[in-house]
## 1
Amino acid sequence: MADQPAAPSAPSAPSAPSPSVSPQPAPAAAAAATVVSNQPQLVAAPQTEEEAEEDFDGSDADSALGDDLASSTNSITSSIYEYRAIKGRTYHSEKHDSKYFAPNDEQQMASQDITHHYLTILLEDKLFLAPVKEDAEKILDVGTGTGIWAIDVGDQFPNAEVTGTDLSPTQPVWVPPNVRFEIDDCTKEWTWASDNFDFIHMRYLFGAIADWDALIAQAYRCCKPGGWVQSCELDCIMVSDDDSIKEDSIISTFWNPLWRELSKKIGISFMVLEEKLQNKGFEAAGFVDVHEANYKIPIGGWAQDPKLAEIGEYTVMAMINDLDGYTIIPWNIVHGEDTPGYRETIAFLRRELKTLKSRGIHPYMTARYMYGRKPL
Ligand SMILES: C[S@@+](CC[C@H](N)C(=O)[O-])C[C@H]1O[C@@H](n2cnc3c(N)ncnc32)[C@H](O)[C@@H]1O
């Protein structure tokens, strides 16, 4: 096995969330939320002898999957298509003063679509958890990315008008007739009318939002009385319940500290669950019937439960497909522009991610769905 490259000095390894499996206890700040979860127990499948003996040589590092206000609502102008090019990747236009960390190109979009796929498997083919009425008329997807969720919801609610918004106009042109996309910076004051949407959906906005209370308060304002707002977020660090992520693992020395340090440096959280930012936002905004569902999202196909094993295969696929996209800006911010060691560190991480199962490493990230109703 190759030696691990000397990763830049890192803060201490993260503390794992409660090792208990579903249903997980509600955090203190979420007193008003009902905690629900029907996730199967996340335990590792026993290793086969073959897996245990498997040699880790990292030689197939290139294959996709190893073994195992200012006004916010603008019409699209040409300047929005002037993506910033950084080290061969493109990022949202400088028209927005946001500094979102991930690219907006095809490679990143493929990872977003894989993510949508595993989250849909996680929810048993449902697109959301909130009890949205079938006669919903207006649905908003904030930070829609490739628009894949909005398009699927448009199919499910053919009589509803579905709007997806994002910093980047990367959504397809040919979409169901009831779906449309707009360029919008959701961190600016929303220009939507109050009491406008039956359902507002926000997913995977970690690393994008400096003020979660403000975001959720705007969603509350723009939601119709009796309508629902749902937020799904993921904490970027990986943890394990069986101490299989060792202190000298690249997950502990590079991956986890990267997100903690980045959060501190840019003042935008990549640890939305740990900081209970959704919980606080829903409570502060005034939602009722607030529900919280926590899920352990395995990284790698090591879980005993077949559905969780499948999800784990996809999570690792989404990561490996675009490790550069997820990490190059964070690396430059945390360690300094062009600090040596990036390529080696990412190559090592890629090899580790591809061999988690055979090496008996059982990481997961935690996702939280919160949804609440605006009172009548
Ligand atoms: C990880 S992707 C998630 C995409 C989509 N919500 C999903 O779950 O498939 C995050 C998206 O948020 C968008 N985003 C980041 N900052 C934003 C902002 N201030 N306003 C609107 N969208 C933003 C990014 O451009 C990106 O498309």
## 2
Amino acid sequence: MILNLLTPNTMTQRRDELTNHDYDGIQEYDNDLPPWWVFLFYLTFVFALIYLLNYHVFQTAPSQSQEYAMEMEAARVELAAYEASAAGQLPISFMEKETDLEAGKQIYSKNCVPCHGPDGGGTVGPNLTDQYYLHGNTAEDYFKVISNGVPEKGMIPWNNTLSRREILQVASYIQNRLHGTTPAQPKEPQGTLHDKSISMLSKKPKMNAN
Ligand code: HEC
């Protein structure tokens, strides 16, 4: 019904008149556009008007760029809150990224070589490449012994010198790169046997430590 109103009678009555041109034998009618099509066409006017008033004239709703800025700001606030909370600290788990392991290697050669040897074979400190551990082989165990040291046995506490991230990097370097290699002069095993499967099991589900 509404469609009929949109299409004046005078127009609908003109039917199937040919336009007076001919392109390579192709002729065409000069009929009116279908009413539903015309209706949609007018609808786009209405939509555009509402859109214009809403977003640009009265600004009752935020534009795309304002929305983007609002979301970014909300995310920034959320991230800051998260990083300030305990859960936002780097999780104690082994890192696997090449850059972290490389950083761990640098930390190791600068600080740990005198007592654990360049290849982890051990001198004053124990062999870090074998399956025997004095203090366990989970990420938590490494973190604890490197942070707090064992001063009475000659292992220095590193929590004043190295950051949380650096301790995790060097621990990951030991576990992922030194452990399981064969050093030139390995020190005799010390501590208890932990085979690799235990260390795999004790790995926490990975989170991206950035
Ligand atoms: C001054 C010597 C010394 C330095 C330097 C040193 N360590 Fe140690 N480390 C030791 C000694 C000694 C032990 C054995 C402690 C014990 O007997 O309980 C040890 C034990 C460890 C253990 C535990 C091994 C196990 O079998 O459970 C880890 C891991 C370790 N050190 C990592 C490091 C890292 C990483 C660094 C460098 C940031 C480092 N150490 C620097 C002397 C040292």
